[in-house]
Amino acid sequence: MISSEPMDAKKQFPYQVIAVTDLANNFTPDHFRFGVGQCRDVITRILTEDNRTDSDQQIVRLRMLKYLDVQLSRAVRWIDEGADLMASVTRSLIELRFWAQFVSESPEKAAQFLHETSIDARELYERIEKLAPCDPAQFEMPEVEGKRVTVEPSGSRDALIWKLCSKLVHPSSWVINDLDGSLHNAFQRQVLATYVVHYSWLIITTFHHLNWIEGSADVTEAQ
Predict the structure, then answer these.
(1) Which residue in 94, 76, 97 sits closest to 85, CA to CA?
(2) Burial zone of 156 (CB within 10 Å; 0-12 exposed, 13-18 middle, 19+ buried)
(3) pTM for the model
(4) Lowest-confidence region among 3-7, 17-21, 37-41, 159-163
(5) Closest to 215 measured CA to CA, from 79, 42, 27, 99
(6) Among 197, 214, 175, 216, which residue's Cα sits nearest to residue 79?
(7) What residue spans define the domains of the chain?
(8) Of 24, 18, 13, 22, which is closest to residue 195 (Cα–Cα)?
């Protein structure tokens, strides 16, 4: 189990760094569940104590943390299943981390992210319209301006993990021709599970500063 009070030699590092390192070095499914539980406890506290909706950035923060909690609940259920399921969660968190950084840059970018919902609806409507043209009198899609933001992994390591996840979640030649070395590979699941905890803390700390005192987190909003 991860100690809630790090050793003196480790106190120079943030708790979340110690937690991920300990998980990587001493991985067990129970250890993973504990690590995820710590993340979810902090998310629950934030959602309970800071549920304001007074700005676009705050609205997006709350929604992203709720989505993160959904993904973590899946990871806990899937820790003993195929590596492709953990890859699905990991890939989602890489993308969520991109958006967390994006919306934290400015109120304008938070508003832009919220606007992406309309772009999604427009794109779906346009594809449906090509297959089965609709009667404009019955359904009219409002004009939506703007282009989709391109989501990209942050750095070469994230790009590598993203690529690995993509290979696992799709019916790639590697997966189909080597189930034991891909979907049923326990080590791959372990590595991805560790990254789930890693990315979760990165997302949380993009939005909030954490100061761990006697096993619990003092949480303040990041500016």
Answers:
(1) 76
(2) exposed
(3) 0.85
(4) 3-7
(5) 42
(6) 197
(7) 14-217
(8) 24
> How far apart are the C-alpha atoms of 204 and 39, rounded to whole Å?
8
Q: Evaluate if residue 3 carries a pLDDT over 50.
A: no
Q: What count of Cα atoms within 13 Å lies in the side-chain half-sphere of residue 19?
A: 25
Residue with token string 């500016």:
223
The total number of residues written for the chain in this structure: 223
Sign of CA dihedral 8, 12, 18, 21: negative
Q: What is the dihedral of CA 86, 21, 181, 164, to 10 degrees?
A: 60
| Helix residue spans in 79-185 (DSSP H) | 83-104, 107-131, 156-169, 173-177
